[in-house]
Write a structure and sequence with these properties.
The complex is a heterotrimer of chains A (about 280), B (about 190) and C (about 290).
Chain A (H helix, E strand, L loop, with lengths): L10 H6 L3 H11 L9 H12 L17 H15 L2 H19 L5 H8 L2 H11 L4 H8 L5 H31 L5 H24 L2 H21 L1 H8 L3 H25 L16
Helix pairs in contact in A: 4-9, 5-6, 5-7, 5-9, 7-9, 7-10, 7-11, 9-10, 9-13, 10-11, 10-13
Chain B lengths: L2 H9 L3 H23 L2 H17 L10 H18 L1 H7 L17 H4 L5 H11 L2 H12 L4 H8 L3 H23 L11
Helix pairs in contact in B: 1-2, 2-3, 2-4, 2-8, 3-4, 4-9, 8-9, 8-10, 9-10
Chain C lengths: L1 E11 L2 E12 L2 E6 L6 H8 L7 E6 L2 E2 L5 H4 L2 E4 L11 H11 L4 H14 L15 H13 L5 E5 L7 H14 L4 E6 L11 E6 L2 E6 L1 H7 L4 E6 L4 H7 L1 E8 L2 E7 L9 E2 L4 H9 L6
Parallel strand pairs in C: 3-8, 3-9, 6-7, 7-8
Antiparallel strand pairs in C: 1-2, 1-4, 4-5, 9-10, 11-13, 11-14, 12-13
Helix pairs in contact in C: 3-4, 4-5
Classes of the chains: A mainly alpha (about 280), B mainly alpha (about 190), C alpha/beta (about 290).
């Protein structure tokens, strides 16, 4: 390519440009310097590399407006709530009624009754969280935008929130007669106990198969309650427990729960087969 | 479609537009880098890197008019980085030359290369032996057809500096090329 | 958009289910993945939708490995697995709404898409019916609807016509043809009639390996002089099968007509025929195709 300047047209312009005559001596030599250009295929290779740097399409072209991760998560939570087997919600309702009925039997201390019932919905809920799904469904679910982690997290949130509501309703129902449960103290006691049980049962479920973990926990739990009911000293101890101690235990419970949740979520990364194995039929 | 229209399409995700834009300017960028470095494979790799840089900075391209010159500026800077990089220095052990007019004695060893009969090779070596900034200026001005103002912009200097670099480059090239043709012993001319 | 399968292999226990598979798929069009049962098609598709990891090799979209792309990749993907499972107590629209939540669509977007996809597959009148009451064909259609919810650029369907009756298959073929105009559709099947329309490329796979991939036209052309049609007697059948590859037999009141694959005229009564997909199938897979 040569520098082409018409000398006549713009005097001022041509003064600032290099006159073609200055090149004249060496022009013929300089022109002997052709460039060996890459082939079409090589240029296409470059273009393929460049595709990785295409900008994210914005505004008009983007079909779905971007939503925050939490927004999406709650969308999934709502979805999962519907998916939960009816029997789960039925069981929770039964437990509530049981609590109500037991509360009317003035033979036992109402606090202890409620203590017993508190974590059961969560523990049962774990069955839902970890249950293996029909493989056809699972395959479809896993290819969606949502990650396997978000899915399990969503289910866990459903179960936990359900249980929180359950405890509250239980308090209302049981104290209908006596009215002594609706205190901050008992609320603190119950929710602390929920946190501890939730953390422990999740810890257990991570290490043992879902169904077995649930049964184990329930057996242990039942035994513990029986033990508490028979020992007056333990009962007295629980009733006089200091709020500060309660706070500590609650903190421990919450920590355990959070840590186990985090571990559960980390376990199912895309490095592994997304936590599920598939049987293929191949000859 | 103009370059600016293509850029808009690329930002909306059109890969086809990217392909058109790249193919439109590929040869011009490659030609500059090839003459700057003198090596085919290096030029290919550097060209790819320049286009990658282009993709990354498309957002910051202001519609100043001449996209090609903006792109060449990226190429100039990228080559500068390349030459300053440690890897290159280790390979070539080249010392940097300053802007002052050198007495031709500095190019003494270049004369030997001109024993080759090949004109092509002569020019290539001549251009390569120019100090970096002069080389840039001459290639952009002569081969890529950029005007002084555009050369100045691409190399990030004033118009007068660009002009003087080109002139210095031309005079050195004259010495090397026409001096070699006459198969004479070098006369050490001093530039005023 | 280019989807590159780069020398992908998958090993299950001690067997290589997919071996050194390399292929490039681009932009729009329908790609037909044809192969007998057990060829490794499903495994390959599972790797393409990122629910299974290759033992070696990589799958890339526009140069980027899909493993590193995560949800960005899955958001442009639509997948219909071979074995479909549903919540039978759900209605069609409820199920699709659930899938929308998994695909990250907002409530309002979801409502629209559910309606649109149901209409696309012809189930708009069944929106409120429980899936448990659906026929096999309707379930397949629901499976396709699910895959289309997020308007994917890449649609991957694994044996989507299994269990459909002929009328539904025709309807399905037309739908796929339409979808292929704007998307990349990869359809795997062992039923040749699924592909008897203009598909961009036929990909033949057997025993985990890529046998051939080319336009249907080119493949047919390569078989130009190898297909013959001949009337035969029942008594000749056994001998015929022993000597030649017979891609199909048709029975009519006049007798039996056999389609024979052979480089030269197999029997005196044979006349040349233009090749069909069933011939391609027999030629490459050595068994009679299912149609």
């Amino acid at each position: 390519m040569k520098n082409q300047h018409t000398n006549g047209t713009n005097k001022a312009h041509s003064e600032t440009e290099i006159d073609i005559d200055e090149y004249s001596e060496i022009a013929s030599h300089l022109n002997q310097y052709p460039v060996e250009f890459p082939s079409e295929a090589e240029i296409n290779r470059t273009i393929l590399e460049l595709s990785a740097y295409m900008p994210e399409p914005e505004g008009a072209k983007q079909k779905w407006a971007s939503r925050s991760l939490t927004q999406e998560l709650f969308q999934v939570v709502r979805g999962e709530m519907v998916i939960f087997h009816k029997s789960y919600w039925l069981a929770c309702a039964v437990l509530l009624l049981l609590g109500f009925w037991l509360g009317r039997q003035h033979s036992m201390d109402s606090t202890l009754i409620v203590l017993f019932l508190v974590p059961i919905p969560f523990v049962l809920g774990l069955l839902e969280v970890f249950k293996g799904r029909d493989s056809g469904l699972m395959e479809m679910e896993l290819t969606c935008k949502i990650t396997a982690q978000q899915l399990m997290l969503a289910r866990l949130i459903v179960v936990l929130s359900g249980n929180i509501v359950f405890v509250f309703l239980l308090m209302l129902l049981v104290s209908n007669e006596t009215g002594d449960l609706l205190t901050w103290k008992s609320a603190g006691l119950l929710y602390t106990q929920l946190l501890i049980s939730a953390g422990t049962s999740l810890w257990l479920a991570m290490r043992v198969r879902g169904g077995t973990a649930v049964s184990l926990f329930l057996i242990f739990w039942f035994a513990l309650v029986q033990f508490v009911l028979t020992l007056k000293e333990v009962k007295a101890f629980i009733e006089t427990i200091q709020p500060s101690w309660l706070a500590v235990i609650a903190f421990v419970g919450a920590g355990l729960l959070i840590r186990q949740t985090y571990q559960m979520v980390r376990k199912y990364t895309s490095q592994t087969e997304r936590g599920y194995s598939f049987d293929t039929d191949h000859r | 479609m103009t370059d600016e229209e293509l850029i808009r399409e690329i930002q909306e995700g059109s890969r086809a537009a990217m392909e058109v834009l790249v193919k439109r300017h590929y040869k011009s960028v490659f030609a500059y880098i090839y003459r700057k470095t003198g090596e085919y494979h290096t030029a290919y790799d550097l060209t790819q890197e320049v286009f990658i840089k282009m993709m990354k900075s498309l957002k910051s391209y202001q519609n100043t008019g001449k996209f090609e010159h903006w792109l060449l500026k990226i190429a100039v800077n990228h080559c500068l980085d390349y030459f300053r990089g440690r890897e290159y220095k280790q390979q070539h052990r080249e010392t940097e030359l300053t802007e002052e007019a050198f007495p031709s004695s500095e190019h003494h060893n270049v004369w030997d290369i001109f024993q080759k009969r090949n004109q092509n090779e002569q020019v290539r070596q001549a251009v390569l032996s120019l100090p970096e900034h002069q080389r840039d200026a001459v290639i952009l001005n002569y081969y890529n057809g950029l005007k002084i103002r555009e050369v100045a912009e691409a190399t990030g200097t004033s118009e007068s500096t660009a002009k003087s670099r080109i002139r210095l480059g031309i005079s050195k090239l004259k010495e090397m090329i026409t001096g070699g043709d006459r198969h004479e012993k070098p006369t050490y001319k001093r530039n005023k | 958009m280019i989807l590159t399968i780069d020398n992908v292999s998958k090993k299950y226990k001690d067997k290589w289910v997919v071996e050194s598979f390399s292929l490039e798929l681009s932009n729009q069009g329908v790609y037909g993945l044809l192969g007998p049962n057990g060829a490794g098609k499903t495994t390959l598709l599972r790797m393409l939708v990122d629910i299974s990891e290759p033992t070696s090799g990589q799958i890339k979209l526009d140069g980027k490995p899909i493993q590193h792309m995560g949800e960005q990749y899955r958001s442009i993907l639509g997948y219909m697995p071979q074995r479909l499972g549903f919540y039978n107590r759900f209605s069609a629209s409820k199920f699709l709404m659930y899938m929308c939540s998994l695909k990250g669509l907002s409530g309002s977007q979801a409502k629209v898409r559910v309606q649109e996809t149901l209409a696309l597959v012809g189930l708009e009148n069944k929106a409120r019916d429980k899936i448990g009451t659906f026929s096999g064909g309707m379930k397949q259609r629901l499976g396709i609807a699910q895959a289309l919810l997020n308007d994917p650029q890449i649609l991957i369907l694994d044996e989507p016509t299994v269990g459909l009756d002929p009328k539904e298959r025709i309807r399905f073929r037309n739908m796929i043809g339409e979808l292929g105009r704007e998307r990349l559709v990869l359809l795997s099947t062992h039923i040749i009639s699924d592909l008897e329309f203009s598909c961009k490329r036929l990909i033949l796979m057997n025993e985990g390996k890529l046998i051939l991939h080319d336009t249907p036209k080119a493949i047919m052309t390569s078989m130009q002089d190898r297909v013959w049609k001949a009337p035969i007697l029942e008594s000749e059948l056994t001998e015929l099968n022993a000597r030649f590859k017979v891609s199909s037999l048709s029975y009519s009141p006049e007798g039996i007509t056999a389609r024979i694959l052979s480089k030269e005229k197999p029997i005196p009564e044979a006349v040349p025929e233009s090749p069909r997909l069933e011939d391609v199938y027999m030629h490459f897979f050595g068994e009679e195709a299912e149609s």
